[in-house]
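Bench log. Compound arrived from synthesis this morning; before running ITC I wanted a structural hypothesis for how adenosine-5'-diphosphate sits in the protein. Inputs:
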Amino acid sequence: MIQSSLIPEFAGHVNGRWKESESGQTIRVVNPATGDLLAEIPDMDEMETKLAIESADRALAEEFSFKERQNWLLAITELLLEHREELARIITLEQGKPLKEATVEVEYAAEFFSFFAGQLGHISPRALPDKIRGCRWTVHYRPAGVAGLITPWNFPLGMMAKKVSAAIAAGCSVVFKPSELTPLSAIAFWSLAAQAGMPMSRMNLVLGRPGPIGKVLCIHPSVRVLSFTGSTATGKVLLQQTASYVKRVLLELGGNAPFIVFQDADVDLAVEALVANKFRCAGQTCVCANRVFLHLDLEEKFIEKLAERVAELRVGNGLHTETDIGPLINRAAFDKVARHVADALRNGAKRIVGHDPEPPSKNSGCYYPPTLLTGARQGMQIFKEETFGPVIAVAGFSAESDVIELANSTAHGLAAYVFTRDYHRAERCTRHLHFGHVAVNSGTGPTPEAPFGGMMQSGLGREGGVEGLVEFCEIQTTVIA
Ligand code: ADP
């Protein structure tokens, strides 16, 4: 079992108190690197979710000034940084990623709180400069109300921070459900939020199986914003469940990111960017390059350099300092990666680096070796779906128009990457790529200062930036004669 000064109880937090489940049912949380039991957390259900929403709703009666919200956000920032090492250890234990990545995740989470602390001026009332129809017009950014927040397991602290920071800044109260696979970072965060002086009846943490909790968040009329990060399939379920209740649904869903390297690109830069982008979190991020397109003129040289870099990566327990790639989150994730690789090989792809790993036993981690495949094609599973694992699949191309068409031939428009030294080509490509985040000569993902989100089936709404704050506000226009 995990021992941590930041985890006083294996419990949720409802109406200002730690809370077990009424049913006494629990869910096991295991370390994906070893299969060891870390905790048994309460399996809360509809009833506890309803109590949490009611607490959050009642708490809205007390209004807090911008200054008070800003003080909470800054206090949380400081506490996250102060406890960075312990939080990183908790993330690595429950999620598996290397400690160095977990530390970056804690810092990233802290940046969201400090960023939104500085953005409250953007939701001050805005008086229109002209008198229109003899009246004074003012736009107000009111708190939307109770925010229901659901996050996945790949960034247990980071994903939570994106949503909670914006909700607090906007003046909303919160009912948060982390992934049942990684709830411990959230428990640790909740103990820090209490230390930061937040009124905790505004901050509710519900733990348990997703179906029943998600359903209540979707249909309870007091939940005015539902913000979800996870798979497209679950996002669609939530949209359907909320439809007759007409509430704002923010969805950050899966991607299928193209990574395009043109003949005039800086090969060393592109190789390094791809390795950093693709193998972070063992390839389990929604902005990971999923389809790599290399111009035929540089394909051979690129693959040679890339193969060297991929072969150097060390797989292991994230707590060990030399580890570059930790385990996959669970057996289902491992099986999906193995299935995609087998499908690609069966259909003509060639494995340049990697091998078929032994299937993990019950008490060991689900480690998948970093793999490089060439000869990938449209129609292979690895190009159709997010693989969510440490596998690079490469296809060659020769014409710019063809590669843009190929890149766009997906319903998922989250992130795309383009490498070229030609400014005009970069500008043309970014304009024609239907993705919410397009990086040129860089493999970087989102930052708190900029709005991030997907086009088409990759989602609705934005996180980060002023746009991400306004998502948690209800806009009201007053007209005073
Ligand atoms: P992934 O495949 O990345 O695990 P999911 O969409 O299954 O993606 O999970 C992301 C988050 O959504 C997790 O917190 C999970 O518990 C939650 N979730 C899964 N199914 C539902 C559902 N029916 N209603 C609400 N939340 C759900």
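What the model suggests: Residues 291 and 349 are 13 Å apart (CA to CA). The pocket of adenosine-5'-diphosphate is lined by residues 150-152, 179-180, 210-211, 214, 230-231, 234, 237 (CB under 6 Å).
ITC booked for Thursday regardless.
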